[in-house]
Amino acid sequence: MTGLLSDAYAKTASISNIMGGFKRTGIWPVDRTVFSDADFIAASALLENDSETAREDLGAINPRETTIEPEDEATERPVKSNSTELNNNCNSTDLNTSIEEIYPLPENKGNAKKRKLSQPAVILSSTPYKDELESKRNQRQNSIKKVKKNLGLSSTFLFEARDDQSSTSKSDVVNAQIEYDTTEWYCHICEENIIEDMVKCMKCEKWAHTSCAGTKKQIKKYVCENCK
Known about the structure:
Protein name: Zinc finger PHD-type domain-containing protein
Helix content: 25-40%
Region (Disordered): 54-93
Keywords: Metal-binding, Zinc, Zinc-finger
Distance between the termini: 86 Å
Organism: Acanthoscelides obtectus (Bean weevil)
InterPro entries: Znf_FYVE_PHD, Znf_PHD, Znf_PHD-finger, Znf_RING/FYVE/PHD
Structural class: mainly alpha
């Protein structure tokens, strides 16, 4: 079936056939004389039969035989209603209530949570940030002692040394106590004294934490942002 329909549709579905269908029926170009009165004779016969059957149905109904039963007295009596009283009450009261009182508008409560202020991204070598670091450093240099950094030893160590090569007249055990002063691990970037791995700038010879400088401890040549 699909093959037959596809072949027939391909042959008939053309522009000329479509235009011919509109023309033969008088749709376009408009032609009112395409159909004559003789073409509607069969339809008029059907309409006459329908009208005759409708007349027969109407004639079968006898208006004299139809009687209307009287309604009960109870239904005929009007029932008093309180509609007039309600109308009077409605007219007497003043409708001064606004829509906002009936259904108030929603209020914006705002965000109750306070967000932490994040530090904006800055360039370390820029002039404003560099001047700010230098001013803080100058303020703290008056109160912070300048000491040498000792990366290997940062606190006081106590140990005992045994002299195995000493004579019998001397004591076999020699107690030795060496004290190392606790150093201040001052970083010129974060300006804090925190004991961490540090690196030294080759130019300004200032120390900085490896975490603040973004480098590793094993780096040999380090130059800070201020000296670049």
